[in-house]
């Protein structure tokens, strides 16, 4: 379902005001929507370099050269180099097409916003685990930095693992398949990277060698069927 013109205007003004939209000379239907943000792009220039673009893509795809090496060489060229300009203009057209789909496709916007929310939540999780020193590693060597980063990831994975076990336990305790399906759908709409139930500023004593009791029945959890 496409957005009405006035809603597209509002979305462009609020979220995409700094973006430019590129078009070929044969596609100016949206000009009144984007006003001064619309820039004309020469399709003939891209077509003239199409064989070179395909050769570049095939070289990367077949593994004859690394993409980083080729693009490093391209960046060393003059900005008016024909292949450089063609790739730049083609990329601008793909970017414009994606922005137009983002404006008109509610499902795409929901997917993008959901991914960004998960990434932001994961970043907050990492920041919460990394206490002190203004969220920076105070390590003298690269090896010490790797150890500190590994410890942080270990703590994050341990918390997330406990969360997944707890949610699996709740799914196992559901009285019927309908209840499990409702709970599973609710879980899939949230994020398991939560840490507010963990005491991150406490002291943990691992000196006791006695067996630890667990609230999770791992055999039953692993043998449980997943509701799809």
Please give the share of residues in helix.
55-70%
Strand-and-helix sequence, N→C?
A: HEHEHHHHHHHH
Beta-strand content: under 5%
General form: elongated
Number of helices: 10
Largest sheet: 2 strands, parallel
Q: What is the residue-averaged pLDDT?
A: 77
**Termini separation:** 28 Å
Q: Assembly state here?
A: single chain
Classification by helices and strands: mainly alpha
Unreliable stretches (pLDDT < 50, length at least 5) are none
- Strand tally is 2
**Structural domains: how many:** 2
Rounded to an integer, what's the Rg over CA atoms? 26 Å
| Order of strands, widest sheet | 1-2
Topology:
Elements: H1 5-15, E1 21-23, H2 31-34, E2 38-40, H3 43-48, H4 50-61, H5 67-76, H6 82-104, H7 106-129, H8 142-172, H9 177-188, H10 218-223
Parallel strand pairs: 1-2
Explain what the structure shows.
There is one protein chain. With 228 residues, the chain is mainly α. It has two domains: 100 residues, no CATH class; 81 residues, no CATH class. The chain has ten helices and two strands; from the N terminus they run H-E-H-E-H-H-H-H-H-H-H-H. Helix content is 61%, strand content 3%. A two-stranded parallel sheet has the order 1-2. The mean pLDDT is 77. The longest helix is centred in the C-terminal third of the chain and has 31 residues.
């Amino acid at each position: 379902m496409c957005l009405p013109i006035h809603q597209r205007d509002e979305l462009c003004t609020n979220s995409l005001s700094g973006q430019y939209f590129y078009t070929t000379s044969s596609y100016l239907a949206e000009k009144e929507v984007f006003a001064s943000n619309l820039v004309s792009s020469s399709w003939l220039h891209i077509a003239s370099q199409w064989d070179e673009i395909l050769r570049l893509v095939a070289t990367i795809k077949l593994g004859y050269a690394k993409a980083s090496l080729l693009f490093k060489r391209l960046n060393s060229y003059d900005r008016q180099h024909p292949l450089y300009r063609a790739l730049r203009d083609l990329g601008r057209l793909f970017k414009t097409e994606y922005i137009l789909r983002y404006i008109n496709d509610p499902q795409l916007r929901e997917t993008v916003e959901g991914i960004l929310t998960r990434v932001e939540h994961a970043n907050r999780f990492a920041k919460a685990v990394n206490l002190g020193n203004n969220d920076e590693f105070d390590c003298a060597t690269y090896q010490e930095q790797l150890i500190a980063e590994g410890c942080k990831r270990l703590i994050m994975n341990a918390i997330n693992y406990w969360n997944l076990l707890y949610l699996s336990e709740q799914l196992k305790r559901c009285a019927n398949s309908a209840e499990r399906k409702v709970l599973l759908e609710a879980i899939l709409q949230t994020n398991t990277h939560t840490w507010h139930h963990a005491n991150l500023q406490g002291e943990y004593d691992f000196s006791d060698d006695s067996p630890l009791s667990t609230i999770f029945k791992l055999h039953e959890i692993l043998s449980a069927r997943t509701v799809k």
